[in-house]
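Two folds, back to back.
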Amino acid sequence: MLAVVTDIDTTLAALADPTRRRIVELLRDGPRRAGDLAAQFSVTGPAVSRHLRVLRRSGLVEERGTEADARVRVYYLRSEPLAGLRAWVDQVQAFWADQLDAFREHIE
């Protein structure tokens, strides 16, 4: 269970920043080049690169080169960390639903 919590901590830490959440939202629509992502923000390209580095290290984003130009980096959203986060949220939600049901039965 500790590894799962650590993964969730890493995912939540990466998503804590609004710019990184916006990058994830942009990547939901499909892969994007780093320059295309940077153009969506009013911050510098290096600042977006730092955000992308955090997302890569958390496992939320994957970076690949293109066959046409190895200098061009394309970013893809990875589903595994989000699935782990979703499973954890579902467990917490189920716990509270059970607690509320037990409380309701107790009152009735």
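---
second:
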Amino acid sequence: MLVPGRRYFASSLFVPRTGDWAVFRHPQQADTIYIKRVREILDTGYIMGGMVSWASSSDDFGPVPRDHILGKVFV
């Protein structure tokens, strides 16, 4: 689980897989950067999940296109 205020390393050299944390641009607001856990990978994009009920996820904004994925987060 990520902790607010703590620093993490992310790299675009590694492709996130299911269960990994990923940094990505929001599908509808490309100037907004999110960090979420990859719940599933489909042909249409990445399905991102939230850890808490009030957090937004792909249930709210849909799949994240592959070109919006900025990198894998190392915890």
